From TrEMBL:
<dbReference type="Pfam" id="PF13439">
    <property type="entry name" value="Glyco_transf_4"/>
</dbReference>
<dbReference type="InterPro" id="IPR028098">
    <property type="entry name" value="Glyco_trans_4-like_N"/>
</dbReference>
<feature type="domain" description="Glycosyl transferase family 1">
    <location>
        <begin position="181"/>
        <end position="322"/>
    </location>
</feature>
<dbReference type="InterPro" id="IPR001296">
    <property type="entry name" value="Glyco_trans_1"/>
</dbReference>
<protein>
    <submittedName>
        <fullName>Glycosyltransferase</fullName>
    </submittedName>
</protein>
<feature type="domain" description="Glycosyltransferase subfamily 4-like N-terminal">
    <location>
        <begin position="17"/>
        <end position="175"/>
    </location>
</feature>
<dbReference type="Pfam" id="PF00534">
    <property type="entry name" value="Glycos_transf_1"/>
</dbReference>
Length: 363
């Protein structure tokens, strides 16, 4: 007897640490199991998995890269015939978009992770995708495209000519039960933190430039790793900041470090919808960010949970102000994001999307 549940496959290149990986695996595990049969399909290796997946079927194709997994993906869809395939991250979305042409009865949904027209200005090009020559056309073949922010939705509409009826705005959910810190006073010296991979678009260099100009003592916790490690730490040395910085390549205790910090520093030139600043706000730590597309201006309410500035000089001025007169209330900071991005709110939006596209396709 055929189940009345909708069969959904969520697919990712890998389960290495990252925002897309965490959000997609969270959605896959937590959508309503009375309505959906959820499978998580990973192109990469099981040995690399950084997330513990429970209560759903998980399949690893054990391939070194997406380009090596195209036939395996095709074979999986052919054999299992899912009702819906949801993919994330550009190079995998390129593959699934063209696979969709072979499976007209299956609904294909893409979740993109950045404001692509802006990202192109900063993206590292040393390892271009095998499928980059096909990438510009991939959006034409999806039934729906999930956008994490208004900036992303407008970018797809204006710069990629994707009609708005194909675009769906769903912000990232808060995936953990964060405890709001009780401490109202700042540390001595004041503690800053950034959680971001070491890539050009993350803007570490302008944060470091600003910190080199402040006239007070501080400590800066830098969590992340990536291809620009040598460049970033050369700049740290040049600015004589090494003694003020603690570097943590990877940790499962991000919440702890966020709660111990006084201010989150966001240097990005573009984002999709930054999980790290939502999580910082959830524990009660406000954010100082450079103005950039990708949901930052949706998340940050000036003087409630942080501030947004336009350049390095303004960043320095705000740092000086925060150090001299810190007046953020952790409970207010947390409340500014807790309801808007709660898992209950965001999961309901995903479930509504899946139900609507399925019934439209099958009625």
């Amino acid at each position: 007897m055929k189940s009345d549940k909708i069969n959904i496959t969520f697919t990712l290149p890998n389960l290495l640490p990252g925002g897309a990986e965490r959000v997609m695996s969270y959605i896959a595990q937590n959508i309503d199991s009375t309505k959906f049969n959820s499978t998580l399909l990973i192109v990469g290796y099981s040995k690399d998995a950084s997330y513990n997946i429970k209560n759903i079927n998980v399949i690893f194709l054990e391939k070194p890269r997406v380009s090596k997994g195209v036939f395996a993906l095709f074979k999986y869809i052919l054999n299992t015939k899912p009702d819906i395939v949801v993919s994330a991250i550009s190079h995998l979305n390129t593959v699934t978009s063209y696979l969709s042409l072979f499976f007209p009865k299956t609904i294909f949904i893409a979740r993109e992770v950045n404001v692509l027209s802006v990202l192109a200005n900063y993206e590292n090009q040393r390892n271009p995708s095998t499928f980059s020559f096909l990438g510009d056309k991939r959006f034409n073949f999806f039934d729906k495209i999930i956008c994490q922010s208004n900036d992303m939705l407008e970018d797809f509409n204006k710069n990629f000519n994707i009609k708005k009826n194909k675009l769906v705005l769903i912000n990232n959910p808060i995936t953990d039960n964060f405890k709001v810190k009780e401490r109202n006073k700042i540390n001595t010296p004041i503690n800053f933190i950034t959680v971001a991979r070491f890539d050009q678009e993350k803007g570490h260099h302008r944060i470091l430039e600003a910190l080199s100009k402040v006239d007070f003592d501080f400590h800066y916790t830098l969590i992340g790793k990536g291809i620009l490690y040598d460049e970033i730490f050369a700049q740290i040395k040049d600015f004589n900041l090494k003694s003020k910085i603690t570097h943590i390549p990877f940790t499962t205790k991000v919440e702890k470090y966020l709660a111990e910090s006084d201010l989150y520093l966001q240097g990005s030139y573009t984002e999709g919808f930054p999980n790290s600043i939502i999580e910082s706000c959830m524990v009660g730590t406000p954010v100082l960010a450079f103005d950039a597309p990708g949901g930052i201006n949706e998340i940050i309410f000036p003087d409630i949970n942080g501030n947004i500035v336009s350049n390095v000089n303004e960043f320095v001025q705000k740092l000086e102000t925060f150090n001299a007169n810190y007046n953020f209330n952790p409970k207010d900071v947390s409340a500014s994001v807790s309801t808007r991005y709660s898992s209950k709110t965001i999961l309901a939006k995903y479930e509504d999307l899946f139900m609507n596209v399925y019934h439209k396709k099958n009625n």
